[in-house]
Amino acid sequence: MHMADALVSPVVGGAMWVAAGCLVAASARRLRRGLDERKAPLMGVLGAFIFAAQMINFSIPMTGSSGHIGGGMILAILLGPEAAFIAIASVVTVQALFFADGGLLALGCNIINMGFFPCFIAYPLIYRKIAGARPTQRRIFAGAMLSVVAGLQLGALGVVLETTCSGISELPFKAFVLMMLPIHLAIGIAEGFITSAVVSFVWRARPEILEVAAAAVPIGALKIKKVLAGLAVATILVAGVLSWFASANPDGLEWSMARTAGKEELAAPAGAVHAAVERIQSLTAFLPDYDFKRASGNVEPQAATVNAGTTTAGLVGSALTLALVALLGIILKTQRPAE
Amino acid sequence: MRAGGASSLESALLDLRGIETLAQQETPVHRRDPRAKVVTALAFIAVVISFGKYDVSALLPLLAYPVALIVAGNLPARFVLGKLLLALPFALVIGMFNPLLDRTALVQLGDLRVSGGWVSFASIMLRFGLTVSAAVILIATTGFGPVCLALNRLKAPRVFTTQLMLLYRYLFVLTEEAGRMMRAWSLRAVSERRISIRVFGSLAGQLLLRALDRAQRLHAAMLCRGFDGTIRPMRRLKFTAADLGFVAGWCAFFMIARIYHLPHLLGQGMMRMLP
Asked: N or C: which end of chain B has fewer CB atoms below 10 A?
């Protein structure tokens, strides 16, 4: 469920980076203000715990296969949402750097999908409401199960939205949702069992740990959470709208219109809005137009009959480029011992 | 499916240590300031993903970056390829649908028509290879500590970077602890092949309690040594002219590769030269 860089557009990746960065900074500030510095080593060690625990595989009943935990909700229950969010963000960062699991620009997406939804949505709105300050075995189970399932469903929806908005995958939104949500429902149920098993174990062995975590969240926390949620939702919307209109070459909406209508543009799509978005895009995007070499009279995407000369030139050029890159490698290699 | 148990834990640890060993080398790439490498890697990935979804040949010149760094940084190519294979499934599963769903003919080679789906699939795979190798190369030529230091200097929140360093430090300790627990379990449960969920709950719970106790001792020890929430690195970073040249040179190359379709220009030039 880690998003890869290859499937994210710069607009979506950038917007999610901003959202994740704001959330990390805000959580960090809250932790500092709460003088909860005790949590710094605690967060680090628990992040490492999640890693170690992820490496222990267990059998999933009735399927004959094995899986490992995600563990986000365990952190939220033991550390409180802000500290858990930062811990998850760092887990995801280490995964991106060391295990090539998820990319660097997709990091924002992954932090939001796997950190924001469980910590700031599922934990306060579901787990705390059910388990409360005086948990029982049954409450822990119900709270853990429901919150884990909800968090994973939201995360999966996040993956679908980010992928669809990026417009690199051809998967239609609906089919993708129908594929992702059931899979993550199954994963969520298994994860729910595990989470409640681990949390109840801690609760039986060392109840004070849960009490401290439950008491650590001040009542004023709700307000900032709303602000943060609003911020994230706004970023998602902005990114979605931006990338939908992001480029003049057929992708996203225009591309699907092109295929259903059989021509590239029905009309100038949505006049003023489109122009405005395009202006913003040209200001924010790395380069104003994704693909302007196409506009300079080369390959038209819809043209079934492509100028053979252009294609040959492209192929020859590509082969030459690869040869040059290989040459570069060889030159560097022969020069190295001289260093 | 990984071969469960202690062996997967040990191989993961070996993997992490292998990366640190690679990062300890002395090459022109290793000598660059970590900030320079972080910024360049991010710029590279941003440029790669800014290409249109049907661009394949235009992306090829960017291969120069990973190739140059792998060779100049003395990284084994097999190591980078192995990491790519590990991360492949997600991009492959999502990208796989493009050829199925997008059948518009886009390129014609003689009688062979290549559909847009295959072109965009190739583009996804190429982006995937470029972006993942950039991340792997960054860490294998820099090491985790210096990357954290660079993030810190680049104004990432301090709590976050401190936490990253602690996480990384305790990753080894706790994974070894988990390995010991797994070994104990496998010695006592000879006939069982996998851990059941019930057993996993108490196993993970036990690991968690040990981790918490360790965190408390650790924190006490850190407080005794005057810890105030920030980790002060021994090493000073120095951003030299060579580092500036590294960043500027690569970024200029990325910009040129982004603006001009280099293989196309090259191909056209070649065709013109031929009779």
From this structure: C
pLDDT score of B248: 94
Q: Is B208 on the interface with A (CB under 8 A)?
A: yes
Global pTM reads: 0.75
Q: What is the pLDDT of residues A148-205, one digit of tens each?
A: 999 989 988 988 888 888 877 777 888 888 888 888 888 888 888 888 888 888 888 8
Enumerate the domain spans of chain A.
5-244, 252-290, 308-338
Does residue B110 sit in helix, strand or coil?
coil
Residue A163 in contact with residue B97, Cβ under 8 Å?
Answer: no
DSSP A66: E
What type of residue sits at position B226?
Answer: G
Report which secondary-structure segment, H or E, holds B113: strand B112-115
In chain B, residues with a C-beta closer than 8 Å to the C-beta of A64 are: none
DSSP assignment of A193-217 equals HHHHHHHHHHHHH-HHHHHHHHHTS
**Continuous segment of H or E residues that includes residue B224:** helix B197-224
Nearest of B34, B26, B134 to residue B74 by alpha carbon: B26
3-state secondary structure at position A7: helix
Nearest to B131 among A52, A103, A339 (CB): A103
C-beta separation of A173 from A166 below 8 A:
no
For residue A210, the one-letter residue type is: L
Q: Which fold has domain A5-244?
A: Arp2/3 complex 21 kDa subunit ARPC3 (1.10.1760)
> Measured between alpha carbons, how far is A119 from B187 in angstroms, rounded to an integer?
37
